[in-house]
Every structure is written in C-alpha cells, then in structure tokens.
Batch of 4 targets.
Target 1
Amino acid sequence: MLLDFFPSRTLTIYLAKMFVVRIFAWLAVLVLVLMMLDLLGKTGDILAVEGNGQSELWLYVSLRVPQLIARFLPYSVLLATIIMLAGLNQNSEVIAMKAAGLSAHQILAPLLMMGLLVAALSFAFNERVVIRATATLKAWENVEYAAIPEDRAARANVYFNDGNDVLMGGTLSGSGVDTVLEDVAYYERDDAGMITRQVTADRATYANPGWQMTDAAVFTVATAETRQQDSVVVAPGVELSQIELRRVDPEAEPLAELSDSIAALQAAGRRTDELEAKWWHKISGPLSAVLMPLLGAVAGFGLARSGNLFIRAVIGMALGFAYFVVDNAALAMSSFGGYPPLLAAWAPFFLFLLVGETVLVRTEE
C-alpha cells in the first residue's frame, strides 16, 4: 500500500474535488476584491477621457481580470491547500487516513495531481489569453485610455541613438517598411553632446536609409532660427532592425514568439539575460501550482489542539509566500546580470521543493 501513490479511487476523487472547488473559490474571491480595488484607482482616469463610459470600464475589467487570474492563481492554490488540510486535520479525517495506512505523501498525491493539472491550464491560459489582454491593455494605457490603436503592438515614448544624435517618437506603430513614428523629435548633437539642430514633426516614415519627417520645423541653435520644411530625412543610422528589437515585451509575447525575439536580439549583439529569464519563467511560474500543496501541507498534520493547528497553518503560509518573494527577487537579480537566466527561473522552484519535502519527511514520514 505504501508503494501505491493512489491507494483509494474514492478517496482520490474526494480529495481532488474538494481541492479544486476551494482553489477556484479562493481565486474568485481574490480576483473580485482586487478588481474592485483596482477600479477604484483607475475609474477616474478612464472616465476623464471624453466619450468614455460604462462600456470602457467593462472593457478595462475584461482586460485586467486575466492578468489577476494569472498572478494570483498560485496564491489561491496555497490558500486552498492550507484551508482544506487544516479542516481535514481538525475533523480528524487526516488521522483516519493515516490509521488506514496512508502516508503523508499518499494523502497529498491527489492535491499534487490537481496542482499539475492547474499548472497546465495556467500555462495554456497565459499563452492564449493573458498575453493578448496584456498587449491590448498596454496599448490602451499608452494612449491614456483614449481610442485603442488598431496596432496593438504600438509602443509609446521610444527613442533611438544614431551616433551622438537622438531620434525620439511619441508613438511607434506599423511594422517593416510601413513603420510610422508620430510626434517625432530629432536632436543633432556635436562631439561634446551639445544640441546643434532640432527637427520636430507630427510624423516620420522609413526612407531607407533614414526617416523622412514631413512638414518639419527645423530649429538651428547657432542662429536661433526656425524654418519650415516640407520634407527632411534624418537619422540614417537608425535601421528597421533597431525598431523591431525595441518591440520585445516578454509579457505580451507567447513562448514561440519570444524565442524568435531573443534570437534576433542575440544576433544583433544585444544582452538578453532578462528576456531569457522571463522565457524560462513562463514555464516555471505555472508549475508553482504543483509546489503549493507541498509547502502548505504542514498545516494538515500534527495535533489539532493547543494552537498547534494555527501555528502549522502560519508556517505553511510563510513558506508559500517566502517562495514568491524569492522567486521575484531571483528574476530581479537576473535583470542586471546577478543570476544566470536558467538559475533565476528554476532555482527558487527546486529550492522550495527540497524545503517542502524536507519539512514533510522530517515531521510526518
């Protein structure tokens, strides 16, 4: 019996069903509360735009809810684990299962199995829904909740270096030779870094090479004169490859597309450690749903008296939240080269996997 991971079909279904119900119940509570708090801060900004109303508020909710689900699903698994096992312990159901010959790992087996299923669903949900909602919401936020641009990949407040010179754009949209910069400013600088000429225009298109600014205002610093020109070509060193590389947003790109973006950046000689860590974290992140039952399991065992149950629940909560802290810290360290990408994404997972197993074996097995 000790070698049988699921010794009882009835018990497996009972625990799995109880676990899943609590996961999604806690997820619904967390998302509902956090969405209401988020709306309190964003409603004024959305309704401040002329023409926006209730439909735009619902649009914001539809774009924000997938992000909240993706972020707080692991927390829901942790809370569901602690509440469920604490209840089973308090009602002596854990004692009954152990008296029947089940080990702690066998009791947790249905929870780990459902955690793996939740992780798979979370990964698919992130790849199919969350990245699209994130891209749309960012494009909407870039225009300060005005009409959402048709090009959801549009970027705001971009700048490019052409030697000493700088090309800046309020909005970058389109792709390839159809790329368009709007609210454009070009600063021509000397070797000392001082601006010698400033060119501004509402729009600039790719001129191969350079960028053609139409109806441009050219200000010459030496003479303090401004003159209008129908067309000016600037920044011949800013190529389309630079433009495309600036579009990389790991939160708004699926795994395959992010792989291509990383390869393009590497081919251009750019540093990609942060993006590689985010690539790996797209896999390790959802797997935290498998880790949470192990970290929260300490709440389900031991004596349910004299405050021991509460202390164990607090320990399980602390272990779970410590994982999220370490996980975020590792990603932050990777962003400036402190950790290799693979280590930053996977080290917290395996570290707390060992911690959870050690606590479980030392106390229960």
Note: The CA atoms of residues 89 and 301 lie 6 Å apart.
Target 2
Amino acid sequence: MQSAPKVVIVGAGIIGTTLAHDFASRGARVTVLDKNEVAQGATSGSFAWITNQTKFRNADRLGEEGARHYFNLHRLSHLRWRYLQDAIDGLPIRWSGCFQSAEPGTEQAEELAAELDRRLRWGSPTHRVTAEEAREIEPGFEPGDENFIFYTPDEGMMSPVQLTSKMLEAAIARGAHYSPHDAYESFRKTAGGYEVQSASGKREADILIFAGGIANPDLVEGTGLKAPLTHSTGSVVHLAPLPRLFDSVILGAHVHAIQRVDGRVVIAKHFSGSPVGDPSTPDPEELVRIAARVLPGLKDATVEKVTETRRVIPVDGLPVVSRLASLPGVLSITTNAGISLAAGLSQLITTELLDSVSVNLLDPYRSQRFEGEAGVGVDSAAPE
C-alpha cells in the first residue's frame, strides 16, 4: 500500500465524501479535509431530489444536444447510486417516484408539457396520469385543480446529511482519514507531487481535489483552476418528524415536498426548478398551509427549522471540471446537482485520475469552455 497514490480531498460534502469512498475503494490513501464538519455546507440545505429533469437551473444557453447529454449524465449517475445503495448498508435513498403537477391552461402546465415531451423523447419512463391514478399511486397526494400531472417512477430522494455521513463512514472503513475543523490553506508543487498545507500542518499528495462547493472559487484562487459561480440562495422549510404520510416527491405549482427516511418533511417554494435570484426565505407557516392543500396530512405539521443556503450554481449552470496541464493530479469539481450527480461524477473523476485517461463523458463540463473553447454540450441555440 505504500506505493498507492496519496489523495487529498478538500471538502466533506456529498461530492467530497463520495470521491473519498471511490478512491479508497481503489486502494488510494485518502485524506478528507474540511474547515467545519461533514455535510455542513450546501449539502445540508439541499432539497435532495434525485431527478430526471431536462430543464436545468441557469443553463440558458444549453441547446437540445447539450441538455440531452446532461440528462443522460443524470441517468447514469442514478444507476451508480443504486449500485452504491447495494454496496453500502443503510444508504438513505428512496426510489419512490415523483409527481409534477399544474393547473391546466397555465404557464406552469405549458412548461410541464414541454418537459414531458423531452423526457419521453429521451427515454425517461415519465408519463401522464389522471388525478385518480395519482391518488392510487400516492394516497397522501390530493392534486385538486392541479390535474395536469405526470409521474416519473424511477426518481427518488435522499436524506443528504445522513447519506454524506454514511459515505464518509464507508470511506473510513476502507482506510480513508477524515480531518474536520482543518481548513485548507495552500499547496505547492514538489518534485514528487504536491505539498498541501492546512491548519493542522503539511501533507504530501499525488492527487489533490477541490470539492468545496460554494468555497471552491476561493479555494482555487490564484491556481489557474476555474470554479466560476453566480450568487443564489435557496430556502427549505424543515418540519418536525411525522408518521409516514407520503412516499413520492411532490412538485406542485406552488410548493415542493419530500418526506425523508427519518420522517421529516421538507418543503420549498419552487426550489427544484427556480431560477437564480429567488426571493428571500418564505413565511414557513404560510408555506405549510399551501403544502397542506395538496398533502392534507401536513395540516397540523410543526415547523422545526428553516435553512437558507447559498447554492452552488456555476455561471452557466453546468458542472465545472477544471484541470491544468501544468498541475497533473490536481482537479476542481463544482456542480449545483451534487444530489443527482455525485455518484456518477465521482466514478468518472476517479477513473480519470487513477487510470490516467481522459474520460470523454466529462468533456462537455471542462473549464476550457470559459476560455472560448466550446464545450460539446454547450451551444448558442435558444433554450428549449
């Protein structure tokens, strides 16, 4: 094992811990650094929907080809989550399907119709259902006037903080080391690799990965690596644990809701598809009342907390994989879709860095697109 590569990962969110597991599974000597503790950044405030959607936040320049590539990357990553769920006992993911609904004749219904058309053409098992069929599948759901409904049976959700902790535990079981409250400070290139400086001291590394989420732009500043973000916040209302009321992800016209594995319900206003520049935190009690219209079981729910988190949104909406020829073994990964994509991106990045290949599936998301080199998945076509 002394010849195994030494890997330092900066960030103990969902991306960083999944990378730690995958590198450790390949025999690498892994250390995960975090300035706080596991899953304390954007992961903790995520809605946590594992999605097949074809319209992506802030990706206004993404044409048909690029959107389909990104959709397929999501689908590939879903398969990897299922594999990891078999490999790691107790991974809190539930594949319980998703309903999206709107009132017929509204702008939201037109958007859903366009979304449904893309999903059908691109191979998702999404399909239209009536309100009666929706209630048969999900008895806790009462769509009311929102009877333009489609259902995607192979979508799901996770409990993100618990899952991230599980991924870290699985990595540690394979020999990884975890160093919380240990802020990354700098690195320098050496004859044999890299020397990484953190609050606790210096470490040697053959591979250094920045997976710091919203901190990535600051972490890579001055290195030549790129992690350009645009500012956006997202608010989620967390309800106190309840008996199991519903299984599916519910995305209504006015509220989105998930009941996680631990019984806690999280609700948000247009969290999953909202644009950059969302309004400030909604009134939580009012949002509960709105949610209870489509999920009557929430009528007497108690608000436990509200999280308002800065979201990780690259400037063009797509993941940013940044590497430099002058710094082999150093990589930055930044994405706003870590819930859906962490499993897939981690596998691709692990392969690229350990097997010294260029993984073609990552090409549309490389940072060279910000230097005037068009990515495969980005074009100038008008958004669909």
Note: The domain at 1-94+155-228+312-384 is CATH 3.50.50.60 (FAD/NAD(P)-binding domain).
Target 3
Amino acid sequence: MASSSRGQFSSRIGFIMAAAGSAVGLGNVWGFPTQTASNGGAAFLVMYLLMMVLLAFPMLVAELTIGRYGQSNPIASLKKIWVRNQALAIVFGSIAMLAASLILSFYAILAGWLIGFGAAPVMELVGLKGFAEWLETYGVARNLVLTVLFMGLTVYVVQKGVANGIEKWSTRLMPLLFVLFAVLIGYIFTQEGAIEGLEMYLIPDWSHVNAGLVVNAMGQAFFSLSLGVGAMMVYGSYLKKDINIVRTAGQVAVIDTGVALSAGLLILPAMFVAKHNGVQIFNEVGELISSGNLVFTVLPSLFDTMGPIGEVIGLAFFALMVIAALTSSIAMLEVPVACLHEELNIRREKAAKILGLAILILSVIIVVNFSSLFDLVATISTMYMQPLLGVVWAIVIGWIWHRNKQLEEIKQGNPDIEQGWFWKIWPWYVKFVCPIAVLTVFLYPQL
C-alpha cells in the first residue's frame, strides 16, 4: 500500500508538463496528422476538437480524481472506491498494468526506429556512412539494439522517482519539444507546396464527414490523452490535495491538443512539400500512401531533397519525435512500477529495472516475430484493452463511487465547484454519455 513517504509532484506546472508529456506521444505527433490526412483534412480536425471537449476532457477529470482520491497505484485506488468488490478492483487494476506494459513493448520498438533515423544524419556527417545506412535499414539486430537503448532511457527516468525523475525530465523535455515544433513549422512554411497542405488542414471538406470519421476522431481524442491504461490515474495520485483538478485537467488537454494541432501544421504542409519535390504521397484514387509508415518513408525522402539543410531538419524532427515518445513511455512504465513498488513493497529502483527488463523481453519476442506479433500486440492493447478499461473507469465514477465522495475530493482544490456548471453536468455525463461514447469507439470497427 501507499506509504506516507510516497512521492509527489513538487509543483502544479511540474504535474502539467508530466501529464501533458504522457499524453503527447506518437499518437499526437504521428497519428493525428496521418488520421487528418486520411479523413478529409479540416473536417477531421473539427471533429477531433469537438471530441476532445465532449469525451477526452471529462474522462481525464475522472481518472485524475480516482487517482488523487486513492493516493496510490490503480489497484489500491480502485480498491478504496470499489469497497464491496475488491476482487474486481484488483482484476481491472492489474489489466491496466498489463495494458500499459503491452503498449510500451511495441511502442519502444517504434521509438527505437526514431532514434535510428535521428542519429543517421549525424553518423553520415562524421563519415560513418555504413553505420548510418544500418540505422535506417530494417533488420532484427538494428531493431533490438535501438529498442534496448530506448527502454534504457525510459527505465533511467522512472527509477529516479516522481520529482527527481518524471517531473524533472518532463519539465526539461516538453519546452524543448515546443521549441523544435516552432522551428520546424517556421522552416517548412518557407517551402514550395506548404500552402497546399495548410489549405487541406484548415479548410473543411464536409463531404468527408460520416460515422466512421466521427468514431475515428473520438478514438484519436481518447487515445491521445493516454486514457484507459491507468497512466493518468497514477499521475493523479501524485497530485497535492489543494490542486484544482478540473482546471489542471483542462490545461493538460489544451497543451495536448496544441501539440496535435502543431503536428498537423508541420506534417501536412511537409507532405505537400514532399509532393512538390517529386515524392509520391497519394495513390491514384487520392488515398494517403502507407500512412503508418509516413514518418519513415515520406519525410526522410523529403529531407533528402533539401540538400545539407535537410540533414539538420531531419535530425531536429526525429529528436522531436523521440522526446514525444519518451515522455509517453515514462508514463506507461510508471503504471506497473507504481503497482509493484506499492503493492509488493519493492524499492522503486528495483521495480523499474525488473519491469523494464520484463517489458524489454516482450519487445525482443515481438522484434524476432515482427510480422505475426507487432500488429497483434498493438491491436489487443490499444483497440481492445484501452477502450474497455475506459468504460470500466466511467462505470466506477458514474455507478460505483458515491457522488458525495467525488464532490468532497474535487472540492479540496476547488471549494466553489458545487455552484458551477461543471458539477451540474459532469457526474451524469460521465455516468451515461462517456461509457456509450467509449463503447462506440470499441465496437464500431468490429461492425
């Protein structure tokens, strides 16, 4: 169980940077722009913004509230609320721990590739052309080395604890990420073809709006905030009691959305710059080619057409991607580490190393059996476990936890909330609307 010496975020801004860092990952910087490009540009953007307000923000408040009330890992926090059925609390808390671990196992492989593509121009610059080519070429040995490197970075940060590890590195990496975004967007807008991409991004084509687009936007909003897997619950448990949860959740959502919007401002114009430079990005019927591999195909091709400056831009871009991946992976590892540390009373450093190694072994198994396991693990963890856990958290808040207890918890950082519009809407909204919305994200692709 949680101890009195349990770590906490030392400041509200530290928490906001860490929580935003958890949310800001490849789903924002890579997933959102490719979803936008594949779903009619600005029409998807409008729906995404709507879903951030209607689904993601209310669920973020729910997870943070559960975590801060429990002041512990997901298993213990759920047990504190689910008093009449402790077994279910343990089961779903454990599933959250497993889901976060599975996501990290394939996420670390992708992040390793990003390190490779970022380091390749530097290696070429110092004359190591063979090594640079190896870093960019798919292969089991290269995948293993880069995955180990990325997992090592993640374990290093998490074992340092909340204030000295997660908060310290998040407050360093997130501002750097913002600066890199600003520099890259500023540069790409000077290139021929960028305005065409900007028009696609900002001028809606409403003919693309259908049920599939709405559900995709809903899923993107839900996943981009790291909801469902217990990461926000754990981070909420490190919040001081005098923090205004609703306002802080709003600030995290705004930063997360801002990064996604910035990614769109970078990636979509970059795609059309690449098209202008002779790189094929759409097929004959106008569909985006290999949206899943966009980062590893279209953009490196674009950087190659830019000459020497392209190497610098490429390095900056992949550095940005690695930072986004690392701030998310820290949160994913923190979920099982908090459980092991507090439930089994294992030292944080030891728990981080044990779980880091266990997840790395799973990553190695995926690398060796990539074609059969990578998509399978990604699908099970993100398309099945994550949304179904989101439904469970909504049920816990809406149907299991007494409303007066929720109000008492939220009021600690916001004494006047009972009189405001938020408290008049949020409890019944999370009770009825959110479970149906998240279930729709889960069920629609199966239909």
Note: Residues 12-446 form a domain with the Amino acid/polyamine transporter I fold (CATH 1.20.1740.10).
Target 4
Amino acid sequence: MIAFVRGEVAAVGVTSATLVVGGVGLELMCTPGTLATLRTGQTATLPTSMVVREDSLTLFGFVDDDEKAIFELVQTASGVGPKVAQAIVAVLAPDDLRRAIASDDVKALTRVPGIGQKGAQRIILELKDRIGAPVGGRLAAAPPAVAPWRDQVHQALTGLGWGAKDADRAVDAVAGMPEADGAAPDVGALLRAALQRLSKA
C-alpha cells in the first residue's frame, strides 16, 4: 500500500498528474479540484489509494486524507467502483457527502454522474451508520485557479462524461458567479456549480 506520494510535479493533465519520486514518474488519477492545486515544477504531497485489478495498478491522488478516506469508504457500497467513487469526491466535498447521507438527501447524490436514484438510496442505506458526522473541514474545494478557468472547468466536465455542448452551456451559466471574478477564481466551486446545473438540465 502506498499511503502518500511526495515529489516534483512533472505534468498536470485533464484527469491525472505525474509526480517524480526517486527518479520515477508516477501517474496519479486526480479530481479536477486536486489537479487545480498542483503546479508543474513545484513539490507536492498527495495522499494516495491504489486500486489493484487483474490487468492494472491504478494510483489515485487526493487533496487531503479526508478525501482519500471518503473515496475508499464509498467503494464499500454495492455498485460503487473507483470511477464512480472519484466522481463522488469530485462533486461533493467530504462533509457535504456526510450531510447528504445523514439527511437522506438522494438529490445531492444523484448530481454525481453515474449515480441514479436507486444507487443513491443504496449508498445512503449502506453507509449511513459508517460514514460519521461532518468533521467541520472544508465545505467545498477552494483550489487556486489556473488560467483560463473556463478551459479547466470545461475539460473537467468532459472528462467526467458530459458532452462538449453541455459543458459549454454549463461554463457560460457559471461565468457570472462571484467565484469567477478576481485574480484567483474558485475553480472547485465553479465546477460544482456547473455540475449542479447540468444535473438539473
């Protein structure tokens, strides 16, 4: 088990980042919010979770230990694999997910691509006694912006499975939000807002 990775950021892509550790480039699959905190050439430390399959070893990286714990916990629910688990932590911050499960908020969970009403109900039922109460951490990801934020949010949406036209409309819809103003737009908040608009469409 690889608990965390620390190294220089060699590359940041749409769905993953490469960190150089001991002369070896490790590719970590990350959410858009986590990727937005990384800068090429800087040293980063990311908690990690390894998913082992018969034909692959995939390393997932997270912005903090709480996000990693949620990623691993939700996979214990029936029908939730690594891809859906990553989508959950991309759309819902850990405490947002805890509140949604505690309050039987099916609608909040169905905002996640790949989760329907029955799947949301099953996740709530199976995790309600195990996920715990909100810990008072971050309510939403607030990573530093990368320019241009519109392109990053658009790429994140298409990477999560939305069509290009839908992504365009969602980016346009959130462009007027306060989080989009200023020198450091809140990319994580803008992405969540865009996902919410897509789920209502």
Note: The radius of gyration is 16 Å.
